[in-house]
Amino acid sequence: MKNAVLVTSGDLRESANKTCWPAQLELETKLIACFARYGVTLRRAFPIDTTRSHGFISSQRMGMDIFNSIDPDSNLVFATAAWQYTHHVLPGMRNHRGPILTVANWSGTWPGLVGLLNLNGSLVKAGVPFSTLWSQTFDDPFFANGLQEWIRTRAINHDCSHVRDLNLHQLSAETRDLGSQLASRLRKQKIILGIFDEGCMGMYNAIIDDELLNPSGFFKERLSQAALVARMQTISTDETQAVRDWLTRKGMTFKTGSDPHTDLTDEQLLKQCAMYIAAIRIASEFSCDAIGIQYQQGLKDSVPASDLVEGILNNSERPPVWDDSHSNELYQGQPLPHFNEVDECAGVDSVLTNWCWNALGLDPSTTLHDVRWGQMYEDSDMSAFVWVLQISGGAPPNHFVDGYRGASSERQPSMYFPLGGGTLKGVGRKGPIVWSRIFVEKGALHLDIGLGDVVELPGDELERRWQHTTSQWPIVNAVFHGISRDAFMARHRANHVNIAYAPDLRTSVKALEVKAAMAAGLGINVHLCGDTLLARD
């Protein structure tokens, strides 16, 4: 290999592209030097746009036009230090015949890892072969060895021996039978996923075609975000204030101010309360079992953020919402599972958790998170790689230290959220979790599932991690059992991961077994990841 071509994708929002460009330029500079060290010239496929102050591909059409000028047999490198819209480059990558390498910077401040995992999951779904790498310094042995392997062989083989296909005979008869019964009941009853506009932020990997979804018993009710805005206008001030007062009585803190451009205001919060009520009423009218609000496109220019709404929806204990006649409480005593950014894979996952955790008498509060970043942490009690999981919306207070009393709401960063709105912020409480991801590969549904722990870190380390990422968002410091950093990155098929708590390790193993058996009963290919502690694992 003597030459390679570099492409990158950015956001649809120019404010984000301009903010992230210095980090992207630093990444590209380091990467070009790394290739040169091994005798390979890495050149950009298109120039930096000085009038726009960045060099990202920022639309699908732009990406198509750029790929028209790229030799389809060339050595292609995709590099990102930012969140990126995969559909900007996916059309060109689908038709590329040469070897593809995807690369990201290992950083919490710059969300390149999140963008990389989204692209990787989308390439897997599309059936496009690729290799992938990541690094903080770009001179560490893992990266250097991987890069040399790709230059030499046009492919990188990562160790994914932590992944095993499920053997149902590994499960106890009790959990196997319960999972099978739940699957049969779900297939008969069927599930409706309420989709408030499909395909958020270019996340091709987050869309499940009906032909794959329906055989497992899941169907889509395609809803409009415009209808959600319209319904918000019908909610009375008394109703919205009642939601806000309920949250305040539960001990939640709202960090408000008077400037709507920089502060979280009372007006923004009341609009979020109206969205909460409107979403539940629409979901009830269409008999939805779970809903996903896209928000990031369109809705962000109409109303404050959906994030506070999403987190409350995912919680078992939440403000009561009545139908329009005020005669029936809707979804009483239960979450209405919400899949952030309309990630339909996470939506299916959340329904499985809801059914299994309820059947076991466990709290069904669940959420997805971005796989944001992570570092080794060592002290006298622990030596482990601890991931930082974050999502701007969807995290339920039951997942936090002290529940609602440990929850706060801060204004979303204006770079992404021009109309503001509050988050649902808190610290993930210590305890066992089951983590999972539904994904599409080779025209079939798959489930990766494993065990983990949310760990408690000292206050200064917690704050350092928060400030290194996004301090307005909830944070979960997680350890995945039996999986190294690089093994997880090499295997994971998405930017998102679902988590749900269990009271102890024994119960988490039981819940994992029931969920695995239920998924298998629905025709989903199940893969056990890491140390799952099954009897004959």
Brief rundown of the structure:
Helix content is about 35%, strand content about 20%. It has about 525 residues and is an alpha/beta fold. The longest helix is centred in the N-terminal third of the chain and has 24 residues, at about 15-35.
General description of the model:
With 537 residues, the chain is α/β, with parallel strands linked by helices. The protein folds into two domains: 3-153, Rossmann fold (3-Layer(aba) Sandwich), CATH 3.40.50; 168-529, L-fucose Isomerase, Chain A, domain 2 (3-Layer(aba) Sandwich). 34% of the residues lie in helices and 20% in strands. The protein has 15 helices and 18 strands. Strands 11-12-16-15-14-17 form a six-stranded antiparallel β-barrel. Strands 2-1-3-4-5 form a five-stranded parallel beta sheet, with helices on both faces. Helix 7 (210-213) links the parallel strand 7 (191-196) and strand 8 (218-223). The protein is globular and about 70 Å long.
Radius of gyration: 23 Å
* H/I helix tally: 15
Give the full name of the CATH homologous superfamily of the largest domain.
L-fucose Isomerase, Chain A, domain 2
Helix percentage range: 25-40%
Query: What structural category do the secondary elements indicate?
Result: alpha/beta
How would you characterize the largest beta sheet? 6 strands, antiparallel, barrel
CATH architecture type of the largest domain:
3-Layer(aba) Sandwich
Q: CATH class of the largest domain, please?
A: Alpha Beta
Adjacency order of strands in the biggest sheet: 11-12-16-15-14-17
State mean pLDDT (0 to 100 scale). Answer: 96
